[in-house]
Structures are given as C-alpha cells and as structure tokens.
C-alpha cells in the first residue's frame, strides 16, 4: 500500500523520495497542508463585490460582481408583482401552489399545574393549484369591488400567515388597491395608529384578530368593511354592525360574490404603491413604509437570480409573518419559479411544537420542505433545542455527536483532516440524519434575515441540517434588498456582497470612530441605493427626509443607521448599530446588540437585554432564563426550589448564570466593561404577545426598560 501511495503522489517524475519515512511525512503532512492552503487562497481570490462609481455623499461604494447597473426585473416585460403572479399562474396552471393542512381534531390538554393547552391533530397538505389560486384572487378582487371598496381606498391585512392572506394580497393588486400590512401580534395602540393613519376602509383578518377589532372599534375612524378569513365570527359582532355601521362578511362570501359578478382588472404600474408595510415598532409607534411594485420586484428578481437550482421541484414552508418583508419577498420568489408553498406556524412547526398533539407530525416533517426562511432568533432556538437534547441523552450518543460535529466543523473550516467524502456520508447517516428529520430531512437552503446570525449557529445549521444558509442584510425600507451571501461562500459572520438590485456604500461616522479610511477594512454607516429603496414613510415627511436622500444621478439612498465593514472580496459584515451604542461614565463605548449576540450562546439564556447607563462605569443585564437548562443544573446540584420563579430568585442560580455569561463573553473576546457586572434573572419568556419583543423577535428596548425600571434601578443601587 505504501508503495502504491509513493507511486501515486511522489512518483510522477517531478518529485521522488526513496525514504519511506520521508514519503509518509510528505503524504501525511505537507500535501494536505499545501492542498488546504490552495483551497483557502482560491476561496479568498474570488471577488464577489466590486467598487462602484456611485453618486451622492462620498463614501466607499460596492456593487455585485454580476452587474454594472442595479437590476429592476429579471423578466422581460414584467414590472409589477401582479404581472409576475399572472404569468406564473398561466405557465404553471396545473401545478400545486398554496397548501394548507387539514384539521382533524382540536383538543385541550390540562397540565399538572392546572393550565390548559390547545393541541391540534393536523392531517396532510391539501393544495390549490396555480390556476385555482389565480381564479380565487380574481374572484376576491371582483367581490371587493362589489362590496363598495374603491380603488383609491386602502385595504389592511391583519392576520397570521395563511393562504387567504396571499390570495387577498394578489386580489388587491388586480384592482391596484394598496395593501396595508399589520402584524397579528400588534398591540391596541399601534393597531389603532396604523389603521387610522392610513385611513383604511376595509380590513381582512382572522377570527381572533376580528375580536381585537371589535374591542377597539370605537377608536377606529374610517373602517367600514371587515372580511373574516374564518367562517366562525365572534358572537358580539352584531354590536359593531349596528353601532358602527360595519359590514362584516366571510372570505368565502366575498369570493362567491366576485365569481357571480366578475369585474375586469385594473392593473397597477411599476411606480404605484403596492404595500404600506408597518414596521414592528422596536422603538415607539410603528412607521408605515411605502413600497412600490417596482421596489419589491427588484428584490424578488435579485434573490431569484443568485440562489442556484431554484425550480418547480422545490417546496417552501411558510410560517413567518407575511407582514414582514422577508416572508413577503420569499413567497413571491417561490411563485416566480412555479414551486408549491405549504403554510404552517411557529406553534406547529415540528413534531414537538407546543400546539401539535403528541404522536402526530408537525408541519416540517409532513411537508418535507427543501427551502425555508428564518430569522436568527428561531435558528438560535433550533440550535439550542438540538444541543439540549444531545446533552440530555449523554453517554455514547453525546460523545458520537460531538466527535462527528468536530470532524465536520474541521472540514468546513478548511482543514484537510476534517470529515470529507465517505466519512462525511457516514456521519450524516449515523448522526445527523435524525437531526435533519426534525425539519423534514430534505432541506437544502435556508434564507436568514432580520438580524445578524452568529457564526456558531450558522455552522451548526450547515452541519446538522446539511443546508446552505443564505444570510441576507436588508431593511423594510429597502424591501429586504441590500446584500446576500452567495451559495459557494462558506465563510461565517458576513452577509455577502450587494444584491444585483443594490449599491451599498459606507460613509464616515466620525463620532463613533468609523471611517472608510480605516485599515485593514473600510468601515462606516451602511447606505443602500437602487430600485429596491422605497418611497419613504407614510405621512412622515420629516423622518423620510432625515434618512432618505436622492443623489445627482437620481438614485435613491437609504441611511440605515447600521455600521459595517467591507472585506477584500466585496462582502459586507455588520459590526455595530448607531442607536445601540452607549457611552459609559469613563468614555468607553458599548454596543448593546454586539454584546447580547455574544452572550446568547450561554445555555442558560433564552433571551437577554444588556443595559448601559452613561452615569455608571459598568453594564447590567435582564436575562430570561432557559427553564430546561437551569432546572437541569439545579437537579444536578441538589438545589431545592418551589417553582421556576423561585429558582430564578436564588443567589446560587444567579451566580451560576452570571459565570456562564462571563465565560461566553471571554470566548467572544469582549472587553471587561462590556460584560454585565450584575444581572436580574427572569422566569417569564418575552414573546410578541407580551409586547416585549417584535413579531420578528427583536427587543423593544424602551418598553423593556419601562417595565423593568425598578429591577434595573436595584441592579445599579446594589
């Protein structure tokens, strides 16, 4: 065998060593090392973004290497979402499009402490074809007009993600009606603000959202019609029909009305406003972002062209809020390729999700998607869930998992000694196959956006689920258009080069110490220009003029408030945010988001908010404890407690969690002043329903500070 290896590697006539020991050394050490270095240098040489000649404020501008000018549409003759939808429905008329699971039974389970939980037994997916969906959208459009809704009036969609949401959206586009999108978890004050500011006359919603509307009906100025997606409506609906003069009809009724009384389309132009999308309101009341058809189409076109292999054979699992631009863009991308969309929800996503009846399948294992979109908070929880399950098994299973993971990680980081080829296949079959089954086992691509994704989580998903993660950076104000990592880029912590529809520019922020002249990489505030940049904020000219600028060439730019740096290959990395930076008493700057991302890796942390006060020299933190991890630690240590709330109050628990945070901080190489000196441990989770985080699971800092002001004061006083 040794002779064969010598002949193959060293007997080419160029190099030959007669010493077996020397040959073994060359084969075992130098060849893999050189090969690894060659791989790395090849990877680093590829230019993904190139310098751009951009107008406006001076800065360091980059464009995608595929284009010279920003992309508006990937399809000749198509300039609106309405056109894209119609063309796809004609081309793929008989193929499945919108899938919904059949409800077999709805049951109530009572836990040991007396709390009741709804559990659903869901069957297989049942589909509407592209042709049927187009017909439904046309019928809805006609029915809407028959109800008395005029083109210049606005429709609000206020519901969870489901097929009726998508049909209503496309139906409105058939009549060139602007849609106002509202998160189903929005609080009363923000809901009233959104509906009144946009003077909505028709609201499309689900039964549970209709109950919210009834409760605040006296505060709504312009609503005349409500279309309920569910057949069952609240019993007190007659009150608003009489006292407020509302017309309340079911979604099915509106479709039938339109089918019986068809009206021709009144299609939009590219510059017409398709959507007024209300941000999730992490600070103050939400702002309505005006998006044209051309804005959204630019992002859809760009992402569609850079994700390889998209085809009608793909299957997309939709569960994120359609009121979020990430999901809205993703579903339109899927429609453009003729693939099916299966609707689910975060509460029914997996076999162990909260609302799934034990012993029945969750959405992912039933649908077996090939493509999904996710926000980092959800991916972090997936990682934590798998890690905790592996830790609970212990023994040989844990050892095998950790060894396989280390081998795959080594290979992904460029080491020749990592698991490749046959060994990779073996570990995938023996270890990671069961993990992949959690999301159906066929996942090949994940679109991540909404916030920075940690490198640890990215690698974990790559390895355990065998899926490439396309990490994007964009904002509601840019229709999610900004940057997007390319399929063959295996690096972590970056968000890729600019999308084909965008120019991305860094401009100096001297106050924060970020300059485009910085070495080794230019740094500054991220400014995005191109056709995906929206018109501005609805009825908020002052704020629009503050963050939107039009240059001398007519290109529109949005100033994001985020801080980034460009790598040599033209890929962007998000490193800070202007609003998240606080100056401490002795002049040190603390980036709250950066520190929180580093500390979230602690197994004891479900969520965390760092708090920095300019009048103190140290930070403190509110920490939502992970109940399984903390209770597991308590059991091992023999700590006696009454309930989880009691356990979180105990001094030894707080000390253990704080030590874990310090360990995570040191691993992330945080400065001493960035590490929280004191923490308050909380037992209740932060959810969109509590109003403490947005629908995209971002912290609502102002609300959190107000709610826990007493606890924060005590931390600084103690």
TrEMBL record:
<keyword id="KW-0547">Nucleotide-binding</keyword>
<dbReference type="GO" id="GO:0016020">
    <property type="term" value="C:membrane"/>
</dbReference>
<keyword id="KW-0067">ATP-binding</keyword>
<keyword id="KW-0436">Ligase</keyword>
<dbReference type="InterPro" id="IPR020845">
    <property type="entry name" value="AMP-binding_CS"/>
</dbReference>
<dbReference type="InterPro" id="IPR000873">
    <property type="entry name" value="AMP-dep_synth/lig_dom"/>
</dbReference>
<dbReference type="InterPro" id="IPR042099">
    <property type="entry name" value="ANL_N_sf"/>
</dbReference>
<comment type="similarity">
    <text>Belongs to the ATP-dependent AMP-binding enzyme family.</text>
</comment>
<dbReference type="GO" id="GO:0005524">
    <property type="term" value="F:ATP binding"/>
</dbReference>
<keyword id="KW-1133">Transmembrane helix</keyword>
<dbReference type="Pfam" id="PF00501">
    <property type="entry name" value="AMP-binding"/>
</dbReference>
<protein>
    <submittedName>
        <fullName>AMP-dependent synthetase/ligase</fullName>
    </submittedName>
</protein>
<keyword id="KW-0472">Membrane</keyword>
<dbReference type="GO" id="GO:0005783">
    <property type="term" value="C:endoplasmic reticulum"/>
</dbReference>
<keyword id="KW-0812">Transmembrane</keyword>
<feature type="domain" description="AMP-dependent synthetase/ligase">
    <location>
        <begin position="119"/>
        <end position="538"/>
    </location>
</feature>
<dbReference type="GO" id="GO:0004467">
    <property type="term" value="F:long-chain fatty acid-CoA ligase activity"/>
</dbReference>
<feature type="transmembrane region" description="Helical">
    <location>
        <begin position="22"/>
        <end position="39"/>
    </location>
</feature>
């Amino acid at each position: 065998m040794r002779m064969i290896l010598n002949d193959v590697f060293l007997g080419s006539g160029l190099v030959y060593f007669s010493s077996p020991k020397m040959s073994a050394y060359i084969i075992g050490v130098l060849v893999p090392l050189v090969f690894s270095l060659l791989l790395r240098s090849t990877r680093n040489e590829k230019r993904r973004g190139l310098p751009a000649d951009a107008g406006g404020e001076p800065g360091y501008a980059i464009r995608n290497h595929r284009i010279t000018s920003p992309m508006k549409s990937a399809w000749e003759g198509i300039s609106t979402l309405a056109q894209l939808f119609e063309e796809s429905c004609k081309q793929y008329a008989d193929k499945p499009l919108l899938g919904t699971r059949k409800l077999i039974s709805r049951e109530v389970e009572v836990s040991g402490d007396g709390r009741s939980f709804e559990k659903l037994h869901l069957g297989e997916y049942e589909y509407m074809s592209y042709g049927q969906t187009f017909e439904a959208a046309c019928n809805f459009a006609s029915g809407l007009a028959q109800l008395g809704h005029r083109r210049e009036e606005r429709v609000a969609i206020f519901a969870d993600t489901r097929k009726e949401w998508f049909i209503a959206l496309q139906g409105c586009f058939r009549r060139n009606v602007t849609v106002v999108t509202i998160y189903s978890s929005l609080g009363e004050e923000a809901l009233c603000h959104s509906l009144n500011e946009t003077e909505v006359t028709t609201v499309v919603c689900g039964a549970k959202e209709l109950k919210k509307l009834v409760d605040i009906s006296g505060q709504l100025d312009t609503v005349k019609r409500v279309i309920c997606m569910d057949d069952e409506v609240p019993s007190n609906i007659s009150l608003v029909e009489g006292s407020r003069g509302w017309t309340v009809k079911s979604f099915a009724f509106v479709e039938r009305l339109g089918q019986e009384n068809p009206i021709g389309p009144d299609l939009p132009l590219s510059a017409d406003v398709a959507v007024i999308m209300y941000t999730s309101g992490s600070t103050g009341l939400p702002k309505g972002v005006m998006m044209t058809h051309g804005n959204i189409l630019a992002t859809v076109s760009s992402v569609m062209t850079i994700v390889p292999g998209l085809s009608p054979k793909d299957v997309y699992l939709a569960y994120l809020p359609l009121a979020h631009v990430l999901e809205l863009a993703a579903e339109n991308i899927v429609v453009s390729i003729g693939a099916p969309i299966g609707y689910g929800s975060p509460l029914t996503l997996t076999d162990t999700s909260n609302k799934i009846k034990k012993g029945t399948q969750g959405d992912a294992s039933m649908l077996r998607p090939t493509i999904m979109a996710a926000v980092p908070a959800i991916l972090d929880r997936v990682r934590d869930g798998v890690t905790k399950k592996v830790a609970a098994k212990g023994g040989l299973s844990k050892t095998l998992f950790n060894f396989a993971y280390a081998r795959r990680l080594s290979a992904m980081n460029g080491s020749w000694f990592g698991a490749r080829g046959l060994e990779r296949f073996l570990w995938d079959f023996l270890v990671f196959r069961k993990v992949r089954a959690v999301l159906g086992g066929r996942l090949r691509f994940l679109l991540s956006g909404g916030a920075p994704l940690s490198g640890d989580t990215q690698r974990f998903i790559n390895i355990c689920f065998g899926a490439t993660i396309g990490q994007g950076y964009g904002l509601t104000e840019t229709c999610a258009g900004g940057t997007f990592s390319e399929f063959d880029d295996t690096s972590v912590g970056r968000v890729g080069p600019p999308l084909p529809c965008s120019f991305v520019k860094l401009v100096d922020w001297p106050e924060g110490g970020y300059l485009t002249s910085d070495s080794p990489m230019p740094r500054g505030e991220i400014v995005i220009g191109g056709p995906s940049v929206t018109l501005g904020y609805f009825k908020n000219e002052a704020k629009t003029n503050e963050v939107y600028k039009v240059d001398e060439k007519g290109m529109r730019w949005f100033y994001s408030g985020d801080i980034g740096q460009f790598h040599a290959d033209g890929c962007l990395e998000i490193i800070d945010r202007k609003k998240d930076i606080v100056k401490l008493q002795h002049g040190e700057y603390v980036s709250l988001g950066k520190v929180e991302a580093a500390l979230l890796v602690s197994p004891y942390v479900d969520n965390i908010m760092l708090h920095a006060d300019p009048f103190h020299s140290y930070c403190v933190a509110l920490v939502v404890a992970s109940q399984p991890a903390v209770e597991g630690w308590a059991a091992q240590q023999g700590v006696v407690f009454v309930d989880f709330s009691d356990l979180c109050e105990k001094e030894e628990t707080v000390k253990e969690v704080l030590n874990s945070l310090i360990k995570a901080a040191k691993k992330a190489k945080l400065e001493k002043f960035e590490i929280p000196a004191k923490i308050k441990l909380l037992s209740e989770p932060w959810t969109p329903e509590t109003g403490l985080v947005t629908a995209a699971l971002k912290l609502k800092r102002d609300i959190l500070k107000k709610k826990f002001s007493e606890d924060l004061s005590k931390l600084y006083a103690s």
